[in-house]
Amino acid sequence: MPPRAAVNIHNLSFKTSICTSCLRRDFSSTPAPQTRLRRQMFAWLQGPGESFRHPLPNSTNYLSAYNRQGKLLREGEDTPESTEDLRPFPLNKTFVSEAILSEDLRQEIWRRVQVEKKSVRTVSVELGVEMRRVGAVVRLVEVENQMREERKQLALPYARAIHEMLPTTPYSQSKVVRHESINDLPVHPLTDQQLFYPTSESRAFNRTDAGRVFSAATRLPDEQDVAQGGAAKQPWQDIQPEKVGKGKNEMDILKPADARIPHPHLIAFAKDQQELRGNDDEIKNRYTQRLEDDATSRAEARERKFAADEKRKTRVDTGRWQFVVTDVKVSRQGTGITGRGAASPGMRYGVPHEDRKKGQVKIPTRVEV
Amino acid sequence: MRNRATTPLSKAKVRQSWSKFNLYNLSRIRSPPYRGRTFYQQKWTAKSILRDYHGEPVREAQWAKQLFRRRLNAVIPMDPTYMARNDGTIESSGRGSGLKDEDDFRGEIRKRMDKTIPYMNMTFAPLERRLDTAIFRALFASSTRQARQFVVHGAVKVNGKKMQYPGYLLNPGDMFQVEPQRVMFATGAPKVTKKSAATTDADSGEPLDEAESKPVEEEPAEEEEDDDDVDIEREPRELLKDLMSQAKSILSHERAKIGAKKKQDLRAFTKAVKRMLSRSTSSSVLTDSLEAQFEEIKNQLRIQKQQQKSGQAAADRAKAANESPDAPLAKAQVDAEAADPVTPDEKAIAEDKDANYLSDEDLKQLQLAFKSSSENPIDPRKPYATPWTPRDYMSAFAFIPRYLEVNQNICAAVYLRHPVVRPGLAEVPTPYGPDVNGTAFTWYLRRR
């Protein structure tokens, strides 16, 4: 570094913009010059960037809502934001800051599930909130209530600030504002491939057939095919797993989209609406009946599974502890011919653990609730 | 671990952070040039600028070999009404049979397929599963680095159990929770001390305005002692007038930082409320709920709600009767009104001469100010500036992707599902569009 000339502070005129803090610095009498880039940055921050320093009251405040000069593109701060204004990354047109649940809507979801004892499925349809989200909201509000009861410190000012900064889905009793799409169909890996399947024009080729073609299964016989006048179940009820292939190649047959969406019963509801136009009572009765049937069949299946699990367990109650012994099977399929295979439970004598080997990741893969 | 997450100005890199440097860089980045560059060069640039943002603490080999997936999760929103009308036969029926779009659902189908699915923006989706990234996305930390520190320092729980690995990959349904005080510290404006005031001054290189350069540090001991200087023995009406003006100041939506005047008002308001509550006859009022405490304050200030329409008019007149010089005349009028067959409410109002009448709006404002002053008090023991305000430049970065469900009150969130892409919308927050992401995706396909 070249030697610097000492600057006498007293000779400097204060009319020029001088860095006052530099004069306060302890060990150097040289005013450190700002680089051009830093100057530009602070010029931007004090110019166009000043708009981002504090949130706009009750509105989002993203980069794409402003022009290069830092002027708000929409008419006034009170006009609602368009999708254009909701992009935090100006170069990424496919990412939008989507609305979060408002505090009222969250409390309403919790109330309907926990107080009115409605099923998650019903609440999801009523309020237009995904079922997984309904479950999560109930779980989080329960934790919140518990923390309030224990008088733990909450982050209330933070929560209020966030709800003012982000778009929110409001709740009103008169009008339902749908939060998100509740019938999302996941794109199945089997449908990634492009298939050319010649089929007869005289026969209807529907979504059930498409699923079977994608999983290389044979076509349904006519007497089971609804499209050919067969008396099978409706596609939305078709949830019985079916297999195709043998041995290692065995896999599930892809069910029609009707059965794979989260709320298949809404298809039957829409059909009812078309067929029984005007007969609202009957439509509603059928709808509730369908949901009830679904709930009972699910509860039965759960019970059956629980009973089957219990059958494999022996419970020994000592008064203080309850020991649960689970019956396991160690078979040749699990241990393999060498007797060292890891598919069956239990230690293998002479087979070391791998956890001391190089490259073994110790980070847990799941945390049980 | 060395912090490589620097934000040099010479080369604009966008990071997962809310710093003003990062905001400036985000405002000036451009899509990388492709003209005159080989495909290899384009891919290299694309993947390096994206890796600056995504999973920067993850080593390149770790990302490319263990985390990167070529399969990208997508969903299609289905319309049950359409599915009820059409079992799929229209999509599969023969083409070129002279059918026009208007003849059947074809136009509708085409409209449905109109939006492309930006698959390529899902390239870095696996990194969104990381615990530190998810904490940053839930707006619990101001950068992924800070989120990482919270995890390592043991301030984060997953499903109720302490988790100290920032690289833990969340499973759908996992609930993570950060200590609320840490979140308030991370997202709140920093406490201004004499030392930090000097350094921020030096950073900006320009003299700051007075309100900011003055250290806002408070003397903690003073708070408890000088309670007596708030005179609450005064006339309830005057006290209420003061409280109302202070309430307005507390709730004012000023965009600037909290100024000295606002703080003074907040402090005076809090003290008055505190003294009033301590004067209460009920011994349990200090541990009661906020609603009960507010009722007590209302009693002490003799606040009555103004009645609507006729009731309101009567109340106004009663108020005027107390204040105006020709009181006896007006009073007689009010008494005459009270003698009329009126509702019991109105009668009560006419009887209570000392009551202070507040409109619904004013009462609401007073309650809000009371709530806000007790929930967001001045507390010099906190490591952040109090009363809590969001830190500078936070709003430009504040968004919560849909794969998380966040409860801000308790600073907990549930990782609902893996991020997905849908027609026209990708859920992975990334600073560049599908073209740059796609180029980076081809780099990791390892066929370069």
TrEMBL record, chain A:
Gene Ontology MF annotations: structural constituent of ribosome
Lineage: Eukaryota, Fungi, Dikarya, Ascomycota, Pezizomycotina
Organism the protein comes from: Lithohypha guttulata
GO cellular-component term (any): mitochondrial small ribosomal subunit
Swiss-Prot/TrEMBL GO biological process terms: mitochondrial translation
Domain of life: Eukaryota
Signal peptide: none
InterPro entries xref list: Ribosomal_mS45
Spans annotated as Disordered: 333-369
Protein name: Uncharacterized protein
From TrEMBL, chain B:
Gene Ontology BP terms: ribosomal small subunit biogenesis
Function description: Component of the mitochondrial ribosome (mitoribosome), a dedicated translation machinery responsible for the synthesis of mitochondrial genome-encoded proteins, including at least some of the essential transmembrane subunits of the mitochondrial respiratory chain. The mitoribosomes are attached to the mitochondrial inner membrane and translation products are cotranslationally integrated into the membrane.
Biased composition (Basic and acidic residues): 344-354
UniProt feature, compositional bias: Acidic residues: 218-232
Gene Ontology CC annotation, any one: mitochondrial small ribosomal subunit
SMART domains, per database record: S4
Ranges of Low complexity composition bias in the record: 303-315
Organism: Lithohypha guttulata
Listed GO MF terms: rRNA binding; structural constituent of ribosome
Highest classification ranks of the organism: Eukaryota, Fungi, Dikarya, Ascomycota, Pezizomycotina
Record-linked InterPro entries: Ribosomal_uS4, Ribosomal_uS4_CS, S4_RNA-bd, S4_RNA-bd_sf
Protein family according to the UniProt entry: Belongs to the universal ribosomal protein uS4 family.
RNA-binding S4 domain mapped to chain residues: 129-189
PROSITE patterns in the cross-refs: RIBOSOMAL_S4 (PS00632), S4 (PS50889)
CDD domains reported for this sequence: S4
Name of this chain's protein: Small ribosomal subunit protein uS4m
Subcellular location: Mitochondrion
Alphabetic keyword roster: Mitochondrion, Ribonucleoprotein, Ribosomal protein, RNA-binding, rRNA-binding
Residue ranges of the region described as Disordered: 190-232, 303-354
